[in-house]
Write a structure and sequence with these properties.
3-stranded antiparallel beta sheet; 38% helix; elongated; 1 helix; 68 residues; alpha+beta
Length: 68
């Protein structure tokens, strides 16, 4: 699955990255490449935690969504 990433130059140097589809996924890196690699890891972690929380609460369901 692909996600939309906003990559910005950080004021203190390096880059910050955030995922539009998963606002909790935020990361940074010294280079663009590092920031993109780190946001990929952050997305994976957010998805894992979200799925685990849903499983624990018993409120989990899956749906297929076609992309535009």
């Amino acid at each position: 699955m692909q996600y939309t990433i906003v990559l910005e130059v950080a004021g203190e140097g390096g880059y910050s990255a955030s995922c539009l589809e998963l606002p909790a996924a935020i990361s940074e890196g010294n280079t663009k490449e590092e920031a993109l690699e780190n946001i990929g890891e952050a997305i994976e972690l957010v998805l894992e935690v979200t799925e685990e929380q849903a499983r624990v609460s018993g409120k989990i369901a899956k749906v297929d969504v076609a992309s535009a």
